[in-house]
Amino acid sequence: MDKRTFLKTSSLLTMATLVEPFSACTTAKNNTFRGEFSLPPLAYAVDALEPHFDKMTMEIHHDRHHATYVQRLNEAIKNTTFAEMSLEEIMSKITDKDNAIRNNGGGHYNHTFFWNSLSPKPTSPQGKLSEALTATFGSLDKFKTNFGDAAKSVFGSGWAWLCVGKDKKLFITTTPNQDNPLMINIAKQVGTPILGLDVWEHAYYLKYQNKRADYINAFWNVINWEEVSKRMIAAS
Ligand code: MN3
Questions:
Q1: Which of 8, 47, 83, 194 qualifies as a cystine partner to 77, CB 3.0-4.6 A?
Q2: CATH class held by domain 127-235
Q3: How far is the CA of 65 from the centre of ligand 1 (A)?
């Protein structure tokens, strides 16, 4: 039994012995499960972020757009060295010569990261995160303005990011398409993302049409700041 077959078989055995729902297991495994990736379920109902992010957009965005990235990523890595890597390893190894893996691997990473950045429960930045945002940007409001301006500045499809840099300082950056700041061979600014906003039209057009600024404003109501804080501490 080769390594990949073993990993798959042992994961399936683990899943079969768990009383937990199948989905809970695949979520936990998603970023470390080698060989084949799966669509992680949302941690909340598709209508939980209403009225800010509407149900139909969430359904189409997760069940169709994200699912397609996962499916195409699996097709693209088949019989390549990438098939043995975790999603994070793929991000760090990808170059502009592997466009299918770059686009679909980025799509899978970015959307998984995005869903986990959101919560129907209102939260606000606390502790070290709150201090770092104030120290870096002047205030939480100034951070929101800078991040919003970056998100508005993306021409066409892409993402806005808040990251922790190598110097452990926070910075805001953007990436086109499905690139992200973990792609060290591609990104203009490399760092560990702790918050990201999808500004592809598919993320907001049904509810906000061409008004990307309204969608960005809505985003501030559904951020899981506890998760952002955990990511910052892990990266610092
Ligand atoms: Mn999207």
A1: 83
A2: alpha beta
A3: 7
